[in-house]
Amino acid sequence: MIEFELNGENVAVRDDGASLLEVLRDRLRVLSPKDGCSPQGQCGCCTVWIDGKARVACVTPVKRVHGRSVTTVEGLPEADSWAESFCAAGASQCGFCTPGIVMRLAALPEQSQVDASAVDKALVAHLCRCTGWKSVVDACVDRRELAAGTDSRDYAAASKRAELEGGDPQAVGPEVALGQGGFADDLAPEGALVAMLGEGGTWVVAETLSGARIAAGKIQGRRTTASITWPIEPPPGEWVRTLQTTWVEPAYLEPDAAWCEPGGDPVSPLGNGGAFGGKRDSRVAEVARQLADTHGRPVRVIMTREDTVRLGPKRSPIGAGIRADGSGIIRLARPGSDSAVDHIRKTIKAAAPLLEVEFVDVAGPPISGSLRAVGWAEALILLSGLNGSTDRVAAPNGATAEASISEQSGEDVVSVSVRCGEILDEVVLRSYCIGAAHMALGWVRSEALAVDIDGTPLDLTIRSFGILRAPETPRIEITLEPDEGAPLNGSDAVFAAVAAAAWRVDGYPPRWPATAAANEF
Prior knowledge:
This protein is α+β, with helices and mostly antiparallel strands and 521 residues long.
């Protein structure tokens, strides 16, 4: 037996080789630590304190904490203060990564907690896809001021704005920052079977998470040394600019998960956010229903990070050429359904009527038309800056945004102005816009996924996708323009506008990500 102190109470568990994370979540029902890299020790979502020091639980065998003290946010001093400051700063959206971030930052000396550079350095151990880091740094540095403020926000309006921006229902409140947003796997009943995808595409069912991992033959994913490729050539012709992009991983932090009771309806993988469209077509809910009916018991279906990368939808690579008058051709990889083809074509034509749209057959992972601004963002970026025009973009839904990148006092600053109808909640809208700017910068400059000649993704670790970390992210300033119209999604327009601004500032390189492309020549 392994005995240790958990949040001030003595506990004992059997040592069967499980990780500390599995013991906390599945044996002791302490659900704030999350499994984002399953388990690679790379995302920081499972960070806890061991004897007061921040450690990742997913790669810590439980036997290593025998006789020691383990603390999670459930036992964190001043947890409410951290939750309130994160909520007030917009530092959590889905809230999957934030319990681990809170534990990391709370472990810093007090003088470091108010030092933005020290906070940036601490955040290197973490990944967040939603917030763009600025709000996280603010939540820590200004924590006491933010937490002490009188909160008069309308959380119903805030949730409405979050749903507009994220595309699926999302709770807003201090509890979300502590991991209580309502994720599917957190809600599964005790004693549920665990299913994982095994060799040959069959689902393997076991009594425990570690048992399912062993039965499925899971091997730790790796980062490849293979070069990325740009699979779609620009069309032949005389163009003022051409652009090629590569495969891009959505890289949402919560891997697909669902569960179901026999004869019941499955709990959706969209528990507190839809991963910007990345989980819209996930199969895990239907698999959970089938397995629960087959086994006559509740079943949790969990995809590992490696499964999510191999099977999850990607942003299509493009090859495009544009003329000075805005006409041209954009080529994309063909999605697997006619409805996705029609949707992408329709939104591109709405944004750029003079662009011809061509779909080509390319060996690669699945393509989704549900991801953030697919197709029309690329079209608007191609049109940006032609004949001296501004980088203000108009999304198909009517929202508009303008972005610029400049050097101020020796650092890059991304300045964004967005108009998207009634604001509803300034904190949430600003948070989503900062996150969209962060995602756009990574898309243009650093993000890519290596794929082999057969179309199989080779990069299987969450650190291999090129997501900008906190110290690499420039300052992002958002101006929310007053607008009395109906509220619209605004962060997608910001995504396109910031990508256009980054492309312009970088000198319109013909391939993205620019850093990887530069190494090819």
